[in-house]
Amino acid sequence: MKHLFLRRFLPALLCLVLALSLTACGGKEDNTTKDGDEGTKGMISGGKGGKGGKGNVSASKVDPKQAAESLALLQGGLIYSDQTTGAVAYLGQRERRDRSPMTDWLLENCGDLASALPFLLDIPAERVLGAGYGNLYCIVPRDENTSLAVNHITWEAYGNGLHPEADEVLYREEYAQPVLVFVDADEPDIEIVLVTNEGVSLEWIPQIDEYEIPIIPIGDDGEAMLMDFAIFGYTTGLDYGDDWDLENWGPNDGNWEPAGDDWWLPPTDAGLENTTWICDCWMMELTADDSEAGYAGSAYVYFQPQEYQEYELVRDGVWRMEDDCLRLKLTAPVVDGNVDAAFPILIAPSGEEMHFQRARTGEGMPFLLSGADSVELTRSYG
Fold first, then answer.
1. Is the residue at 96 inside a domain?
2. Which tens digit of pLDDT belongs to each residue from 35-51?
3. Are 194 and 129 members of one domain?
4. Are residues 170 and 276 in the same domain?
5. Do the domain assignments include residue 239?
6. CA 41, chain centre distance (Å)
7. pLDDT, tens digit (0-9, with 9 covering 90-100), for 314-370
8. In CA terms, which of 127, 333, 352, 363 is 20 to 30 Å from 23?
9. Among 176, 196, 72, residue whose Cα is nearest residue 129
């Protein structure tokens, strides 16, 4: 679960983007050159010192309608906080001598993300910025009324330390569009300036942490000012049918709505392994083992008759994730209450809460009390 929730603040429209398909794939070419830096010059040139981008992103491989729809859907997920100035994704590190076309490089290094959000492959050469190698980021403004400036910076020593000084404007638009930006992997040399139509401004120097996740700036109110959308590329295998309300992120039964935060996501098997969840006097434990082929591990449901008493095992069996559902196959040791059903679940961005729904086929669980169709479970570590 750690990796799933390190990337926070994702829109409820994720599945709409995942439903988009990439219509073509790029051919592969020799990615290296033996003659100094000629590989980079052959692909990205222009601007002072080669820092102004002239990329080789081929739009011929992208359906313009799908590209526009995917961008609109991503930006639609940025409206839930007034402090969100845009979105960012770290796409990987491009080697200095890499001569591959940008389209091929993107498909090779972040193909799942490019498939989910094909606008990445539709960014024209004039919006590919930087040296052409190093850490590559995609910056997406909040909306069409957000201004964006991308500045090259150097670090000057004065006062008590080093301070960034802008020495060249690589891009500046009042009505900005997404850009691809190369940043020096050792000493960040790019500054991002975003200003929304509501007057919220952000100055940010792109950097990643030890997990290769962008270090997202936090506003005065404690909210993230950028949304990391890279998780769109590794949340895969989701296949929502016609009975799934993509706009409202739930089944078309009119009953489901997460409380307070629309950016909850289904977990993976790895995200749920060895976790424990509690609700009132109930506890559900999910372990990782090979107890039954085709399942991620064992599942145990406990009940506490009274406060301070020990929990009693009331169901046990196996579990696995199936798309957005937690499949539970449980038997009841004492009473007739066997369960074999798939329950839609979502995990909060913090990883500490689970929204557990009644199965779409009608089956429930003991902690769905009084005929309730959903319940909130809390992660337990004790």
1. yes
2. 434 333 333 322 223 33
3. yes
4. no
5. no
6. 32
7. 999 999 999 889 999 999 866 557 899 999 999 988 888 999 999 988 888 988 877
8. 127
9. 176
Verify that 152 and 275 share a domain, yes or no. Answer: no
In a domain, 170, yes or no: yes
- Sequence length of the chain is 382
The whole-angstrom separation of Cα 213 and Cα 130 is: 20
* pTM, 2 dp: 0.54
Tell me, yes or no, whether 134 lies in a domain: yes
List CB contacts of 72: < 8 A, sequence separation 6 or more: none
Q: Are residues 265 and 374 in the same domain?
A: yes
Largest Cα–Cα separation, the chain: 76
